[in-house]
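Exercise 7.
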Amino acid sequence: MTSTSADALAVIISPAADKLARVLIKASQTALTGDPEFEYDALLTATGLSPRDLADAADDLEARGLIETEGFANGRETPFDVLAPTSALFAALDGVFGSNNPEMDARQIAADLLAETISDSVQAAAKHYGWPPRRMNPAVTYLLLHDLLVVDELLGSAPWCQHGMLATRKLRRFVEGAL
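Solution. The predicted structure, written as tokens, is:
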């Protein structure tokens, strides 16, 4: 996804989904799936949306794989108990609503990985750049979502999205602007 397509995604989502995404992006500390979790009533307050608009916003973002919802709110007629972003939300929309651009950060990481100027450890690379998890994770997630890195299945990497970064063959083409 280029920054242009990220901008297009922001235009495509409804105004209510825009509000919901902004709340989630602002509240996240790590940009990991599940950070933050909001209960239904708390999201109504945080977004200022009506129940119907919140339900529509959640449907809009969930259909794109940008959030996850769980359950029904204590048997009440509400669309969910809990809502949380997926890491894809931050990779897709931080460049539009946040203070960093995950695609540009991903290009820097990719170029430095290929030049071997950074370690393949997510944590060590973040330290090299001086980036907290909140900035590093969306960039690495961007690379993962575009199949430019191999997924590291090791558990226990929090607050990082994964331990290591192993390039796929497509990474060089991404750096050269061919992807």
